[in-house]
Amino acid sequence: MTGAGILIAVFALAGALFGACGEGGVRYPMDLPDEAHDLEAMALREEDMPEAGLRRQFADSFDNEEWAAAFENIVGDLDAEQKRIQLESQGRIRGYVAAFAWDEPIRHLGKVQSIESTSTLYRDAAAASQAIRRSACGLLISDAEPLEPFEVPHLADEATGFFRYHDDDTLGVYVETVVCFRTGRLVHAVTQGGLDGTQRIELSVDLARKMLERVNAAFARARQGDETTPSPGGG
User: Over 90: is that where the pLDDT of 168 sits?
Assistant: First the structure.
């Protein structure tokens, strides 16, 4: 296992058994068809942002071929075909990313610069849990990259958090504050980015809780009337 994988595995907060109840007694169905997972509905929206000026700049879904190509372009540790094969072996099915930023970021350097929400569907809960523990929550991050973990409150079935640092020759150190949580066979991540000193764990946790509300609502709509619909109680 790589250094990043070890860190995430050690500091991941283990949740309930696969298919059991998550936070607040919410039950996440394992038998929902792949196409019934509305990942777009689970994403954060502009009204969830901590400041009104953070606007959605990008939103799209990615199958494994597309995510592998993005990995090659941004991370570059494997070529796209090798990465696609790896993603398939990890049980990844598809994901959705929504990215928010300032229209004029240079005017807001002392604030959070960007926020992303990512939801990724996996073959089963075991594969989703492995993604949280060993694959940086399925984000565009190399397994070899060192990450700095931090503790987060219990969210859904399990959750984890980590910092990721980038050196910018002009602006200094750029920090990403990531909080991930799992709902059944889905992994969700909220990534807050900004110059060193702007990072706030509590903000990422708050955004993750808002995203969890959207996730639960999407599950409820998908399985309305079914006994496995996520709802308070049970477990």
Answer: no
